[in-house]
């Protein structure tokens, strides 16, 4: 069963997407007075790594987070300079019930104040296929953040607990777990630790940028190397007029090749700006990633002009681009929605009670890739780490 098949089954039977088994609230004595006295190093400061640090902090466990880039947040990257509301250059939607915010915060004394909005039966979906546009009612359970993003949620509730523990510009080259003390080698030297939580993009492991000593077990290596990681690309175009539907999707054949969608990025925001987002993953990324500057702008405008009767070019104001393939410590979009769940489960399994995994690709196989799945996989990893 793939992620998409699993989600569709949930929708058919009126079920919400599953949450991972929860650990106790941080108000419980078990979290505040743990007997775990070892040091933990977390590699990667995206949603999974930040969450792992947060849950360790709640338990009073010593940790550090090593982040290769000069910023934390990973694919939760956003900009506040393009419009009068934050634009999510990566993770954008909430793919489950808003109660997941409180589950991530994991503190009964704090209620997450995050506003989201769902789509309604007055919203329209265009489907572009072989030069024809079919319009229908948009039925989508995803929710948009209102004047905030996933990054803002983490800034408000997660990052303050871990900020002082983040070491930026620390590129990890090897992990030696041949002894009880694990040795981490970075470009600045070596560190020792008792446990490691890996939360780097899967493409980094596929490219062999981290050398494991000894090599990871064969079933783990096979899961990593066989996984399909989609390319990733987003762009945002501001127009003087709103000529587009709430969303316009493209018929990608086969659907395992990826996804492509234009959507109203200003939906539900406190703004009078007309901003259209472009979201592309997988093989459809190529014509966008291979272009830049005016050539890319004209390519997108010509495509929109064909769909919307030449209304795009005359209304264009400005645009921004986020090509995730070009991010040196990410290099792709995310794990394919069609990845077999057993492979995802193997990606999330720990190694030798020393190396644990947290993040979008490293889950228990029920759900993957989304930010809430990444955060809750970190909760699972911390719970397992404390038990071993």
Task: Kindly estimate the percentage of residues that lie in beta strands according to DSSP.
Answer: 25-35%
CATH-assigned homologous superfamily = FAD/NAD(P)-binding domain
- Mind describing the biggest β-sheet? 7 strands, mixed
What is the strand tally?
Answer: 23
Low-confidence stretches: 8-30
Question: What does the secondary structure layout of this molecule look like, with pairings?
Answer:
Layout: H1 3-12, H2 29-32, E1 40-43, H3 47-58, E2 63-66, E3 78-79, E4 87-88, E5 93-94, H4 100-105, E6 116-118, E7 124-129, E8 132-137, E9 143-145, H5 150-157, E10 166-167, E11 172-176, E12 182-186, E13 189-193, E14 195-198, H6 202-206, E15 211-213, H7 218-226, E16 229-230, E17 232-239, E18 247-250, E19 258-264, E20 274-282, H8 286-289, H9 293-307, E21 316-323, E22 334-335, H10 341-348, E23 355-357, H11 371-387
Parallel strand pairs: 1-2, 1-14, 2-10, 7-18, 11-15, 14-23
Antiparallel strand pairs: 3-4, 5-9, 6-9, 7-8, 11-12, 12-13, 16-22, 17-20, 17-21, 18-19, 19-20
Helix pairs in contact: 3-11, 7-10
């Amino acid at each position: 069963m793939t992620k998409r098949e699993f989600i569709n089954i949930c929708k058919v039977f009126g079920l919400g997407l599953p949450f991972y088994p929860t650990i106790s609230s941080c108000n419980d004595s078990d979290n505040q007075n743990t007997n775990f006295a070892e040091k933990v190093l977390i590699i990667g400061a995206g949603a999974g790594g930040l969450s792992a640090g947060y849950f360790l902090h709640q338990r009073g466990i010593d940790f550090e987070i090593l982040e290769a880039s000069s910023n934390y947040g990973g694919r939760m990257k956003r900009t506040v300079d393009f419009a009068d509301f934050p634009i999510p250059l990566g993770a954008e939607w909430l793919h489950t019930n808003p109660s997941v915010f409180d589950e991530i915060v994991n503190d009964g004394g704090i209620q997450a104040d995050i506003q989201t909005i769902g789509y309604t039966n007055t919203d329209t979906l265009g489907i572009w296929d072989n030069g024809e546009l079919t319009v229908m009612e948009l039925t989508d359970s995803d929710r948009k953040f209102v004047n905030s993003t996933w990054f803002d949620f983490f800034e408000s509730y997660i990052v303050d607990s871990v900020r002082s523990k983040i070491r930026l510009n620390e590129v990890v080259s090897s992990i030696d777990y041949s002894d009880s003390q694990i040795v981490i080698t970075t470009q600045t030297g070596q560190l020792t630790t008792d446990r490691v939580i890996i939360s780097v993009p899967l493409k980094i492991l596929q490219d062999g940028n981290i050398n494991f000593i000894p090599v990871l077990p064969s079933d783990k290596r096979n899961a990593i190397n066989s996984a399909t990681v989609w390319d990733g690309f987003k762009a945002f175009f501001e127009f003087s007029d709103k000529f587009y539907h709430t969303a316009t999707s493209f018929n990608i054949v086969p659907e395992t090749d990826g996804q492509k969608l234009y959507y109203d990025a200003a939906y539900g925001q406190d703004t009078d700006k007309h901003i259209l987002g472009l979201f592309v993953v997988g093989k459809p990324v190529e014509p966008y990633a291979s272009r830049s500057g005016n050539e890319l702008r004209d390519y997108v405008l010509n495509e929109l002009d064909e769909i919307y009767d030449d209304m795009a070019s005359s209304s264009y104001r400005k645009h921004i681009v986020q090509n995730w393939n070009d991010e040196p410590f990410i290099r792709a979009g995310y794990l394919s929605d069609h990845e077999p769940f057993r492979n995802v489960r193997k990606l999330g399994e720990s190694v030798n009670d020393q190396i644990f995994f947290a993040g979008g690709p490293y889950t228990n196989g029920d759900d993957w890739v989304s930010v809430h799945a990444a955060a809750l996989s970190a909760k699972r990893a911390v719970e397992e780490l404390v038990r071993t």
